[in-house]
Amino acid sequence: MKRTLLSIAIIFGTCAYAQEKKSDTTKTKNIEGITLTKQVFKKQSDRFVYDVAASPVAKGNTTFDLLKQTPLLSSTDDKTLKIAGKNNALIYINGRKTNMDSESLVQFLKNTPAENIQKIEVITVPGSEYQVESSDGIINIILKKKMSDGLNGNMRMSNTTSKYNGSQASFSANYRKDKLGISASLSGGENIEAQTYTLRNGTAKTSNESKGDIDDPNKNIGGYLNIDYQLNDKSNLALSWNTWANKSYNSTVNLFNTIKTEDETKYTWSKNKEDSRSYNNSLNLNYELKTDSLGSKLNVNAAYLNYRRFQFTDNRTHASDVNMGLGKMTTQVFQDLPQIINNFSGMIDYIQKFKNDLTISVGGNYNKTKTDNDSKNISYFFDPAKDTESKPNHFIYDENIYGVYLTAEKKFSDKISGKIGARYEITNSLGTSDNAPTEALKRIERNYNNILPYLSFNYAINDKNNISYSFSSRMRRPSFWEINPVKNILTDDNYTQNNPFVKASPTYNQELTYMFKNSYFLILNHSYIKDAITQVPLQGYPVSPDGTVGPNPVLRYIRTNFGNKQEMSAMIGIQKSFFKQYWTTNFNIGVQHNINNGSLDMDPTTGDRFRNQEGKDIVYTNKTNSTSLLIQTNNTIRLDKKKTWFFGVNYFFVDKQQIELGLLKGLMSLDLSLKKMWNDWTFAVNVNDVLNTNIVKIEDFQENGNYNYIHQNRYNRNFTVSLTYNFGNQKVKKVRDIEGASDSIKSRTR
């Protein structure tokens, strides 16, 4: 069921940009206590840097809270982070990419105290040396490190109340002795993720409405261990281990369905239950050798990732009546949907610095991934005329990615610098099914290669004015779960369908940035996505390739390549402190313009086409443009001279905008916080979505008469109380940056 919920949640992924604006605002508040003499917010050649080590905003918060309040970052669903104008944000820690699946990563960030953070780097257009997908940006979290021998750390406990109550706890420690540095963290918690859905689709004559609740209980535990040893003055060896485990038993979906046709109205209940658990373990071994005094160095990484997910669902349909009574069971579907992912990655980079401010970087990487999906699907019909259906399918996906890159970065003067590079990638993949419904699905082989150029230019006009431009091209490969050909059942006639035929999607990104006094900025973005990977609703009476017409209309959310689209945005903002730092604000306002151009007339996994009740063919199209207003502001107000009391006010608003599924109605949220710091203790209270306005509503009307409506309440209004204690020597210095080898895997295990 969690995978079902995730699939449906991905439907709203395009909303995240709008929502991301909120986080941007929130992030600003955390930077509020830094003095003006320190550049808290600055633009470097290829990234924005936010120094938060000295900020009281970090105290008492989690890393996820801190990221949400960083300029240019946002989260509207409290699960995903986005960079303004980007599809996704990839999380790096100390230069190494995290290899946890998205659910584990969110829990990890929510359980890691923000006191551990030295600074946050936001790389909006990553260079050729980074192996990233589509228009993804990078958030690099630099952790604090001991300056002198000894031990320090922190403990944090929190409790969150929304529809249900949840609790979290974490413990982190840093130790240094001579050449050895060790950092470790252990965290966990439990909560129930609640959602209320209304799904409505049909025509003027027929309709299908499902309304009800989804409750997903979760227990999590995990942490990390980093060991860094200085072999000599020129070389270091580091080992990192990340682990996370999730248990979600008795996750439930209870939906009341009303199916109307010209002849009758039928009522049913969908009662679904899911038990799932997942485990994520990743290791990264890094060796760094400094080759000269200018900063030239060799980096070698080897990484291993093991991800296991076990999911069992029991989907039941009961007859009902207009009074919502629970009648006899009519259908029962059991699904066993395991997924095991093993990945080995290797990466070598060499950076050569010259005395004339020229830097040449060259490197290569290799990723080998195997996913094993041995799914089983058994349907029982409590109707003597229908036979039991058993549909097992063992889908194995092997993928090999080879990549090499070359970049040159040159500082021509104190004012002008630039960077140019290219990445060449070869991808070979093979998917096999032992019991596929069609011959085409039994063996799917893809081999392709891409040249991906990169260019950036930075001009410091004077001490107060800076302008930069970046261009990059990337590939967006489907996540491993997206190509696993399984159904995620919501009701008898409403489900999501993954698709092994999804192919990689090229993306071309441009960004122009202007900054004034490191406080005011203007950012212009443009992205062109070809063969966009998304989820598309097909509804009507399915007609199989042999001409058989289904007895009932259905709605299938199908993962597929859906035409081309463009995303453009313009944003102006300010990040500044006023009144001797009593008030720190981050304010952004801008517009986003979406151009959608896609159509679909066939289920690519079955070959089914769709007809309406009159027998006319149905094609789903989205060729609509939209322009939306975006506003966000994060404010931190210091309430006393001693800098021990702080009040936060954060707000975001996103106007309605056109996405793949239809018209997303406006979203907004008001968040308030109060924090008290006393010696090594920090007490904080947060109230999110005070007005209860962060609710997703999507509406779509097709020219052929079909309509589709989605209403999703994720209970974003919540109240959190937290207590944090810091112990030991808090003197810190910047840790050395280490890039991980498994750069393209984490985001694809979602």
From TrEMBL:
Protein topology in the membrane:
Multi-pass membrane protein
**Keywords associated with the record:** Cell outer membrane, Membrane, Receptor, Signal, Transmembrane, Transmembrane beta strand, Transport
Q: What's a single GO MF annotation on this record?
A: siderophore uptake transmembrane transporter activity
* Gene3D superfamilies, A to Z: TonB-dependent receptor, beta-barrel domain, TonB-dependent receptor, plug domain
Domain Outer membrane protein beta-barrel, which positions? 290-725
Q: What subcellular locations does the record give?
A: Cell outer membrane
An example GO BP is:
siderophore transmembrane transport
Q: Which GO terms describe its cellular component?
A: cell outer membrane
* Domain of life, per lineage: Bacteria
Q: What is this protein called?
A: TonB-dependent receptor
Species this chain originates from: Chryseobacterium flavum
